Amino acid sequence: xxxxxxxxxxxxxxxxxxxxxxxxxxxxxxxxxxxxxxxxxxxxxxxxxxxxxxxxxxxxxxxxxxxxxxxxxxxxxxxxxxxxxxxxxxxxxxxxxxxxxxxxxxxxxxxxxxxxxxxxxxxxxxxxxxxxxxxxxxxxxxxxxxxxxxxxxxxxxxxxxxxxxxxxxxxxxxxxxxxxxxxxxxxxxxxxxxxxxxxxxxxxxxxxxxxxxxxxxxxxxxxxxxxxxxxxxxxxxxxxxxxxxxxxxxxxxxxxxxxxxxxxxxxxxxxxxxxxxxxxxxxxxxxxxxxxxxxxxxxxxxxxxxxxxxxxxxxxxxxxxxxxxxxxxxxxxxxxxxxxxxxxxxxxxxxxxxxxxxxxxxxxxxxxxxxxxxxxxxxxxxxxxxxxxxxxxxxxx
Length: 397
Hints:
Blueprint: H1 13-16, E1 20-22, H2 31-36, H3 47-64, E2 70-74, H4 77-88, E3 94-99, H5 102-113, E4 117-122, H6 131-139, E5 146-152, E6 154-155, E7 160-161, H7 164-174, E8 177-181, E9 200-204, E10 215-220, H8 222-230, H9 240-247, H10 258-274, H11 276-296, E11 300-301, E12 313-317, H12 324-335, E13 337-341, E14 351-354, H13 361-377, H14 386-389
Parallel strand pairs: 1-13, 3-4, 3-5, 5-8, 8-9
Antiparallel strand pairs: 2-10, 6-7, 9-10, 11-12, 12-14, 13-14
Helix pairs in contact: 3-10, 6-7, 11-13, 12-13
């Protein structure tokens, strides 16, 4: 069979070269993962897939730092968030949604859609959560009507990292479930599920796992499984019991995106070769490099305190008089560099530099230099190379 030609006529170089994705997801893919994605189609009910499935399960338990099985659902990270509600609650159950950004707000809204009573602990977007507020809220719940606390570990809309370990300890004192959206923090940020006593942890393939979108991951503690057995919200394709039953055979209940499993196997092998602590150290340094470079240009970071800053994404305000989305548009058109924009109420007010997953210093430096040039063309005085001078070019990993 002759090869199918790739049509490149009348396409510019910028259209042919890959985009430099500086997003908190989807993130760039390693070449080895790209190659794995083109593997042959196999029977998803056969021994080859079961072997692949078992290896991935072990790798995911390693990444989640848990002894519990990690369920795999076809869908986005939001699918995992929705599944956690369907599988753990009954109509009228009360949950506490902690929110300081778009995703925390949305999770509470989602719970309300399914008939749950939603109490909220709300902060201005980007403001750090105060653990004493959470303690006071739960101590006031004398009858323990709050069944679970919904926590966003890394709020990508605002780039704030919430104090999960301390929050989880407070929730455990109350007795509620600790349900964590770790979709953009898994692998990049310390998050030992079992050691921190987390009941439900959610992840997704297109973030720190360096795989295309399409798989959601859910790990449940023994306590969460007991709660699940009593939950009465209706569910079908996202049923955890059914998913676990099939997983014990090495399968999924429904036809899975088989190429993503090929890619995930390779990505997990790469991650284990690098080591979880080293992956986290790399992301910490990338975050510090981005922050130093942006501050070197005189830009204002949305999260000024590094201790509360995301290792996945850094939101920044544009210089006075300049439009954040215009800056992003120019970086895309002139350099093929993709930055994230502000979400919902922050639309047009910030741009976000992602540094999650398959990212290394050259990508960071290229983005900073391109940003310098973009700002200079708009009349903002940026000495050439000042952003790089503010970072540490001697760091090696």
